[in-house]
Amino acid sequence: MGYHPSITKDSIVNPAAVVADTLNRAGIHRTDKKVYLIGSQGVQDELDNLNLEYFGTGPDPISRQSDTRPFIYDLELDEEVENVGAVVVGYDKHFNYHKLMKAANYLVQDESCIFIATNTDETCPGPNPDTVIPDAGPLVAAVQVASGREPVVVGKPHTPAFDYICHRWNINPDRTMMIGDRTNTDVKFGRDHGLRTMLVLSGCHQVDDIVDNQMNELDDMVPEFYADCLGALAPQRNRA
């Protein structure tokens, strides 16, 4: 289909940008506190753009103090609890038990520490439909259960993403359509925030999922329209 020349990288919204905006509006930059980040390069880039300090990215290998005393009894935190203002959890291929312990302890030992999740998607799409690729959702769930804390989820279908879009572009919901391939995130996001909705069948969910949602009275996950793919929106050209 291509894109209109007016669309640039600044026209694209991703959960990482909403995470950084949420932290910034929470005033963490005024506290001199750092962010413990379980996440990918995209989140790092957005935090860098707002000069927010973070730590914890990359591999964090588990080591034992001795053969008889496991590391879990001698956990060494990278930063003192009072120096950490937020824990952010997103997709992280380096996630392990060590990171889980650190995140949980920062959240449990200081109730004022903010817990933010990029999204709660269960899996990522991939080239092999028989291979399960966990997304951020399972990681967020692990930290949530271990800490007993409820995260602020910024990604679809939650409100922080909508607030960010409205604040930045002043959109008119009545003239805006949410298009996506998931009924539980994309369609629900649109329905919950007064947007028109369309499901494209080129990704996660199909017509059977729409029917199941209707039968189970999950009206907020039933789109107004559906199409085989995004290209179906392009005007048909006459071929000579």
TrEMBL record:
Alphabetical UniProt keywords: Hydrolase
One GO molecular function term of this record is: phosphatase activity
Top-rank taxon: Eukaryota
Gene3D superfamilies per the record? HAD superfamily/HAD-like (3.40.50.1000)
- Alphabetical list of Pfam families matching this protein: Hydrolase_like (PF13242)
One GO cellular component, as annotated: cytoplasm
Q: What is this protein called?
A: Phosphoglycolate phosphatase
Species the sequence originates in: Panagrellus redivivus (Microworm)
Q: What is the lineage of its organism?
A: Eukaryota, Metazoa, Ecdysozoa, Nematoda, Chromadorea
